Amino acid sequence: MKLKSLISVVLISSIAVGVSAQQRGKAKGGPPHKWRVQQLHKDNNEGIAVGDIDGDGMLDISAGEYWYQAPEFKQRMVRKLEAFDTDFLENNSEHLYDMDGDGDLDVLAGKFKTSIVYWYENPGAGKYDVEAWTAHKLIDTGTAHNEATFLHDIDGDGTPEFIENSWNAKDPTQIVRLHRGDSGEVTATQHFVSDAGNGHGMGFGNINGDGKQDIVFLSGWFEQPKDEPFSRRWRYHHDFDLPHASCPMLVVDLNKDGRKDFIWADAHNYGLYWHEQLKRQADGTTTWPNRSATGHSPPRGQWFPLTAFGCPSSIPPMALRNGPSLSKSTTKL
Ligand SMILES: [Ca+2]
Ligand SMILES: [Ca+2]
Ligand SMILES: [Ca+2]
Ligand SMILES: [Ca+2]
Prior knowledge:
The protein is mainly beta. It has one helix and 23 strands. It has one helix at residues 19-27, and strands spanning 7-14, 35-43, 49-51, 60-63, 66-69, 74-77, 83-84, 88-89, 94-97, 106-109, 116-121, 134-140, 146-152, 161-166, 174-180, 186-192, 202-205, 214-217, 220-223, 235-237, 250-252, 261-265, 272-275. Bound molecules: calcium ion (4 copies).
């Protein structure tokens, strides 16, 4: 969960894109790019998504109780959110996806301390002067310690799955599968990756090189079965523990050796780290030394685009610091 701070939804746009592009323009003698900053709203919401909500070809923004219609980013209602504690709203992630298959983007969102997941039906172009979008209950996941949620196609079948990350290690890791009937009715089913085993921070990627995406989290990784991924629990590899990892963790082969490494940020704190995956042992165990130290960084230009962190597409090695060492925990999940 966040530190005590108010979240402003601020739009920053430019005639072109990016500081690096601006620098290139200057180098070539081209005109400097102009930026416009527009504050859209100020509240405690922690979720945001971008997509063409009204189908006019321009990207709009959804963020908590409202969506913002391009090009002026006019504020329009989506839903009401409950407040809790002193400075939180019950929204920590949201996703724009055409849930009912009618051609427009709907909002799918989980909540911090509520286990019921709703999706909110887009009323359709020209019908946006409504008090709220129709709310549909998707599923009760049974978990109410949700740090963030992901909409990610974990099995590669073209349909994304809804996956919650919990700060409570006793919660299960589960995958919510979305189903759509012939007339657009939306249902969901749960698959439990583990009976217990979660923790602050999560990402996805093919850790063991078998072509299947695995789930990496605070305390290791879950191996997707090579056949039917939703037929049984996934094998757990307790190969590391991180102190407080980010959503997302990024799984990528940073040093181009054919094995996926991962990047994580120190959640609610400063620090961005990467860990190299060494050659896997015969029993499938993996080893992950911290390679953030100077001298172990890949050459500049090989960095994975860190857009998920809101970072530039290329960051210097100095931006990655030495992180806490990994250790094997005796904690039983
Ligand atoms: Ca639009
Ligand atoms: Ca829709
Ligand atoms: Ca899928
Ligand atoms: Ca690698």
